[in-house]
Amino acid sequence: MRVLFMGTSEFAIPALMQLISHNFDIIGVVTQPDRPSGRGKKLNPPPIKKYALESNIHVLQPDKVRKPKFISKLKQLAPDVIVVAAFGQILPQTVLDIPPCGVINIHPSLLPKYRGAAPIQWTLINGEVETGVSLMLLDAGEDTGDIICMEHIPIKLDDTLETLDKKLADIGAKLLVDVLHNLKNGHPPPATPQAHELATHAPRLSKNIGHIKWNESAETIHNLIRGTAGWPGAYTYFNDGILLKLIHAQPHDEKSVKIDNIEMKQPGTLGITSDRQMFVKTGEGVIQLLKVQPATKKVMAANDFVNGYQLKTGDCFSNS
Questions:
Q1: Beta bridge partner(s), residue 246
Q2: Are strands 130-137 and 147-154 parallel, antiparallel or unpaired?
Q3: Spatial separation of the C-alpha atoms in residues 34 and 210, rounded to whole Å
């Protein structure tokens, strides 16, 4: 069976790795073009490209998959099935019609919940306690195709975007291998239509979504920190405008935190313990900051931040 793989981010690597280890005939990897990143704006390849080249797999990097010249190239490759994992472009019907066994997509949510570009992020931001992976047959809509199979997992309190991404990528890779082993030549796998009336959406995150509003609850703020980890990141301001990224935190009930009168303070007020632990008053509860990153500095433990900037109880983060 001739398998064409489409993917871009780290999420796609476990699936390609499993296909290689199970000796599937991978005829190529399609990924996004190299993009400039970092201060020097140096061109960097997508993570899946690096892995594919190390595995001696041919890589294709079209600017747009819907261009006729590239579609003609895909037809020449004659894949039996196309596998998609975090690719980043919506495939037109002309591509979906090429493989006789269909286009199988690995989507990290329990469809029809969280259709869109950022399902893991919104799952965490919204405080869900369960998520999973759906394998579906792609159609021309955005994550609206029929479901082939699905696996549920619980979300732990200490899960972040990075940890959950890795868990779901591994699960999706194993499900994919099972589905491909059971494919019959020339026929897509059996699949069930989604309950479209239950659909929710997970649009791409904007850069400013991570701006902390301290009048929200400690749990809400904690979920935002988890769901925006990596990019765009959760942040606040201190000392008249210095940006501070919040890397790792833990919510608490106010009664469990022994800081005099913190429950009487306005949201955003700091409470510093005798051993230099840092807590912040929120609209409901208190959140403990464990790791932070001041602008232009490296990630540091909260107590090092407290000592370095000489923070004390009663100081306040900006609420705007």
A1: 234, 292
A2: antiparallel
A3: 27
- Residue 21's contacts (CB-CB under 8 Å, 6 or more residues apart) are none
* pLDDT range class, residue 261, cuts 50, 70, 90: low
297-314 per-residue burial string, b: 16 or more CB within 10 A, e: under 16: eeebbbbebbeeeebebe
Contact status, residue 58 vs residue 29, Cβ threshold 8 Å: yes
Q: How far apart are CA 98 and CA 76, in angstroms?
A: 10
Burial class (CB in 10 A: 0-12, 13-18, 19+), 157: exposed
Question: Which amino acid is it at 200?
Answer: T
Q: Rounded CA gap, 81 and 75, in Å?
A: 12
> Mind listing the pLDDT tens digit for each residue in 213-234?
999 999 999 999 999 998 899 9
Residue 269 pLDDT: 93
- Would the pTM of this model clear 0.85, i.e. be above it? yes
Q: What's the pLDDT score for residue 260?
A: 64
> Quick one: tokens of 196?
């479209």
Sheet holding 59-60, edge to edge: 59-60, 25-30, 2-7, 81-85, 103-107, 130-137, 147-154
Closest CA to 289 of 240, 254, 247: 247
Q: Kindly report, residue by residue over 2-21, the tens digit of the pLDDT.
A: 999 999 999 999 999 999 99
